[in-house]
């Protein structure tokens, strides 16, 4: 499993637009092959900063989504609302007891 976290800082006056984009696309993202979970987080101290937290079967599944028509619509619309570049990273869960993925 691959976990993807994308931290996005929005122009404060444009957060409602982002939330509408997310509401309109959340279920469609969840339906993408290999997507197991999508969640939206809001920064506790900066209300115009959000993170998407998603689980994917693999990097290949995430990359297929990133090449999809859906992503091609959602990402440019979201990016237009940014106050700063997004920070994105992927991680794998680790069993701390064994040190294994």
Describe this structure in words.
It is built from 3 helices and 4 strands. The longest helix is centred in the N-terminal third of the chain and has 16 residues. The protein is globular and about 45 Å long. It has a 4-stranded antiparallel beta sheet with strand order 2-3-1-4. β2 and β3 form a beta hairpin. With 101 residues, the protein is of the alpha+beta class. α1 packs antiparallel against α3. It has a single domain, classed as 2-Layer Sandwich (Alpha-Beta Plaits).
User: Terminal Cα separation, in Å?
Assistant: 9 Å
Structural class assignment = alpha+beta
Counting structural domains, the number is 1
Overall mean confidence score, pLDDT: 95
What is the number of E strands? 4
Q: How much helix is in the residues?
A: 25-40%
Low-pLDDT runs: none
Report the major sheet: 4 strands, antiparallel
Radius of gyration: 14 Å
- The top level CATH class name: Alpha Beta
Strand order, main sheet: write it out.
2-3-1-4
> What order do the helices and strands follow?
EHEEHHE
Q: Indicate the overall shape.
A: globular
Separate helix tally: 3
Tell me what portion of residues adopts beta-strand conformation.
25-35%
How would you summarize what this structure contains?
By secondary structure, the chain is of the alpha+beta class. It has 3 helices and 4 strands, in the order βαββααβ.
Question: Can you give keywords for this protein?
Answer:
monooxygenase activity; Dimeric_a/b-barrel; oxidoreductase; monooxygenase; 101 residues; ABM_dom; 29% strand
């Amino acid at each position: 499993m691959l976990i993807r976290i994308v931290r996005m800082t929005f122009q404060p006056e444009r957060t409602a637009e982002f939330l509408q984009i997310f509401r309109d696309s959340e279920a469609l993202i969840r339906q993408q092959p290999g997507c197991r979970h999508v969640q939206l987080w809001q920064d506790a101290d900066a209300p115009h900063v959000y993170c998407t937290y998603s689980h994917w079967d693999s990097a290949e599944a995430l990359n297929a989504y990133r090449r999809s028509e859906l992503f091609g619509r959602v990402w440019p619309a979201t990016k237009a609302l940014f106050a700063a570049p997004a920070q994105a990273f992927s991680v794998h869960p680790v069993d701390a007891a064994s040190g294994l993925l």
